[in-house]
Predict the structure.
Amino acid sequence: MNPPVRSRSRCAAPRAEGFTLIELLVALAILAVVAIMAWRGLDQIARGRDTLGRAMESERAMSQLFDQMHSDLLQAARDDEIGGPPVRNDIDVLQLVRELRLPGQPTRLEVVRYQLRDGQLLRYASPPLSQVGQLQDALAPDADLANWSAVELADGVTDAGIRLYLPQRGWVDETTRAQSAFNDNLKTLRLPLTGAGPLPRSVTGVELTLQIASQRAPLTRAFLVGE
């Protein structure tokens, strides 16, 4: 009797579980591309946030500057109080005389200067003045600013322009024109039959133009002088 014949067919070896080297390399390449895209997106978001923050800070500083100048010019002294125009302009300098009203004290005068120095727009304010001599010293171009208060209102200012509005003359750049308007008003008031009354303001408006480094176009604002 012949012995039973056994089958020689081999069972297939089980396939090892996991990823092949090619699959791992493809996955790593995809992850690298996704990581680069995510980094670029986050970098753009961070840059946009910084740019927006600087723009908001600049806008806040400009708003405070314009509010302060508006307040100072509305409280400008009258021409007959100081014997001349209360607002004067020079290269990168706006100078004005304002009334200083403190509770329980008589009204005094204060000289305020807006001056551009090394890209910073500064506001200088003199101590309260009660004598004509003190006022003349404070108005001098070489006045000692050691005891004046100074506040930085804006930074990154590359250029500043100032114009004065004179009734019946329009916008001018020179303080001499304002002084001429004051002299004309004074002569008119002294003519017979004109009647007594307050001296008209020689300057009724101020225009400020600022060029900011972070802004493409200059900023221009106009303000009224006096209440």
